[in-house]
Write a structure and sequence with these properties.
The protein has 13 helices and 9 strands. It is α/β, with parallel strands linked by helices. It is globular and about 55 Å long. Bound molecules: phosphoric acid mono(formamide)ester and norvaline. Phosphoric acid mono(formamide)ester (CP) binds next to α2.
């Protein structure tokens, strides 16, 4: 059934770098050189099966497929019932018999695994309750742009002149928030690239033990530091990047009141960064959508915050994933 893109736990560091480098080249070619794609997906269709809402991932995917000359076919949960009216197995066999790729946003991670198992075409994970791999590619691309050589003016893009291998290893990222799908994806990705990660989650909101184990096994091999605490101030020490996410992920709406109480003290503020001793030039990342409780406006709309650059980079990284799976048919 060809190759899928489900989690970076399945990819080598070189393959992850290849996706980031390709995204940077696409951004340079499309945004700055205004180059056409040559329509390699002409006559081909990517089914976009989403059982949850999306702004960034959907817009990034539809525009990326259009750029490559293909047809994005959005199938929301009102259009087809992923695993509701029909088993996922049947849906996967049927849809994959007519399209060239499937991008799916699901609840349970086992749903994306089932789709991939029975699909005859490549499957891309557009978020599950366990992982959100395309998001982490955009985060890494943004960190490369921010910590690499800076352009002289807005109209020159220089990120493609250096390799992320020169900019990413050694950076320290502090996660302040929920032990959720975004953190899980960072845990299975960062140690492969030598990006240090210090994690603060409230008690009871720790990341999954099996994901932590994957991260720790990898971290030993690459000499990367991974640490866990329940004190946000401890986590931000010497951080180059502070990152958080919503405290209430899609599907957890009924837990809102309890979560807001349990996450007291976890709001990202400039005093948290200062008191905890983050690096003077620390930057702020957030996958969005964002609520005020997890980060103040003062940080979110400050020059430290690179959230909108990160959001735009969803497009270039998703373009690189689609290009790898449907055009090059390889991550190598
Ligand atoms: N960050 C992200 O995945 O956003 P959407 O849910 O809007 O796609
Ligand atoms: N953790 C969030 C990420 C949204 C992009 C969620 O799963 O809803």
């Amino acid at each position: 059934s060809g190759i899928h893109y489900i989690t970076h736990a399945d990819l080598s560091s070189q393959q992850i770098y290849n996706l980031i480098v390709s995204a940077i080249q696409h951004k340079h070619n499309v945004k700055y050189l205004n180059k056409q794609s040559g329509q390699p997906l002409s006559g081909k269709t990517l089914a976009i099966m989403f059982s949850k809402r999306s702004t960034r991932t959907r817009v990034a995917t539809e525009t990326a497929v259009a750029y490559l000359g293909g047809q994005p076919m959005f199938l929301g949960s009102q259009d087809i019932q992923l695993g509701v009216n029909e088993s996922l197995l049947d849906t996967s066999v049927v849809v994959s018999s007519m399209v060239d790729g499937i991008m799916a946003r699901v609840g349970s991670h086992s749903d994306i695994e089932t789709l991939a198992k029975y699909s005859t075409v490549p499957v891309i994970n557009a978020l599950s309750d366990r992982y959100h791999p395309t998001q982490i590619l955009a985060d890494l691309m943004t960190m490369h742009e921010v910590f690499g050589p800076q352009p002289k003016d807005e109209s020159s893009y220089v990120a493609h002149l250096t390799h992320p291998k020169e900019t990413l290893p050694g950076l320290k990222v502090a996660w302040i928030g929920d032990g959720n799908n975004i953190l899980h994806s960072m845990l299975v990705t960062f140690p492969k690239l030598g990006v240090h990660l210090s994690v603060a989650t409230p008690k009871g909101y720790d990341p999954s033990k099996d994901v932590v184990k994957i991260a720790q096994d990898e971290a030993v091999k690459t000499n990367t530091e991974i640490s866990f605490t329940h004190d946000p101030k401890v986590a931000v020490k010497d951080a180059d990047v502070i990152v958080t996410d919503t405290w209430i992920s899609m599907g957890q709406e009924s837990e809102k009141a309890k979560r807001i109480k349990d996450f007291a003290g976890y709001q990202v503020t400039s005093s948290l960064a200062k008191d905890g001793g983050a690096k003077p030039n620390w930057k702020f990342l957030h996958c969005l959508p964002r609520k005020q409780e997890e980060v103040t406006d003062e940080v979110f709309y400050s020059p430290r915050s690179v959230v909108f650059q990160e959001a735009e980079n969803r497009k270039w990284t998703i373009l690189s994933v689609i290009d790898a799976l449907l055009v090059k048919k390889s991550f190598d």
